[in-house]
Write a structure and sequence with these properties.
The protein has 279 residues and is an alpha/beta fold. It has twelve helices and nine strands. It binds S-adenosylmethionine.
Length: 279
């Protein structure tokens, strides 16, 4: 039996094949986990394919790959994840920020252009992703972020420290109305999975991400109703919604009296953001 050390290229190939059985992004997952294990960035792996791995590195990588093969999300294994210009702490206390939520931030920022020190409320902040990205990209914004989950808020607090950005965090249940105001903008990625749909979600999501972040009883409507009282006249509401919910959400906003209701697709062409203006 050969005792030759395995090279970086060898382990990457084997891990990609293995993870490809349970993940649609097996190669990417394998690269991210290896880069993390070796303390390098992904691109650097490509210049070092022949480098042998030490037994400690191999053990650590095997452990990371085994976790991913059990469907644990890569972001939770890495412990951090990129969102807009930020890198945030992520763990099972809160939802992993998604690429479509970056579009929510883009739409939110569009409504802040030309406003002086706008007041912004992020409802259901999780890691703090939306609130922190807005504070980062519109530095004069006065951003408040709320969540019903104490765990999520503790993680968001870590991300406030990590990024050095100034936002106000508070524990609050949106079902009882929104705190403070009037706001120029209310933004939210509320839980929008119906309880009955939970079982149909991928195990990566269903078995690892907090259910309070996924499942909510008509939360987009709860937030939209509450936001009417919290927004100043002319202020905007920007909501992320689930695939297939755009038409009903746009109609719901119209029914509540919002005007200029607009829907924006994500990068795959699915309508995932609905916004409106308080008259
Ligand atoms: C889909 S996650 C969004 C997290 C983060 N904003 C993001 O986009 O990555 C929804 C968040 O809403 C919070 N949440 C659920 N019900 C809530 C409620 N009634 N009031 C306030 N926040 C709530 C959850 O704890 C969770 O952090």
């Amino acid at each position: 039996m050969s005792t030759a050390a395995l090279s970086l290229g060898d382990v990457l190939r084997r891990a990609s094949e293995h993870l490809g059985k349970t993940s649609e992004t097996g190669r990417l997952d394998a690269e991210l986990l290896l880069a993390h294990t070796l303390g390098r960035n992904r691109i650097e792996l490509y210049t070092d394919f022949d480098r042998p791995l030490s037994s400690q590195e191999l053990d650590a990588y095997r452990e990371a790959v085994a976790r991913r093969a059990r469907h644990e999300p890569v972001a939770y294994i890495l412990g951090e994840w990129g969102f807009r210009r930020l890198t945030l702490n992520v763990d099972p206390r809160a939802l992993i920020p998604r690429p479509e939520t970056e579009i929510v931030v883009e739409r939110a920022l569009a409504h802040l252009v030309g406003l002086d020190a706008p007041a912004v409320l992020d409802v259901g902040t999780g890691t703090g992703a939306i609130a922190l990205a807005i504070a980062d990209e519109q530095p004069d914004a006065r951003v408040t972020a709320i969540d019903v989950s104490a765990d999520a808020l503790a993680l968001a607090r870590e991300n406030v420290e990590r990024t050095g950005l100034a936002i106000e965090l508070g524990r609050h249940d949106a079902a009882g109305g929104l705190p403070g105001g009037p706001y120029d903008l209310v933004v939210s990625n509320p839980p929008y999975v119906e309880r009955a749909e939970l079982e149909t979600l991928m195990p990566d999501v269903r078995d690892y991400e907090p259910h309070v972040a996924l499942v909510g009883d008509h939360m987009p409507e709860v937030v939209a109703r509450a936001a009417i009282d919290a927004l100043r006249p002319g202020g905007h509401l920007v909501l992320e919604i689930g695939d297939g919910q755009a038409l009903a959400t746009a109609a719901m906003l119209g029914g509540l009296g919002y005007v200029d209701v607009v829907t924006t697709p994500d990068l795959t062409g699915r309508d995932r953001v609905v916004e409106g203006r308080r008259d």
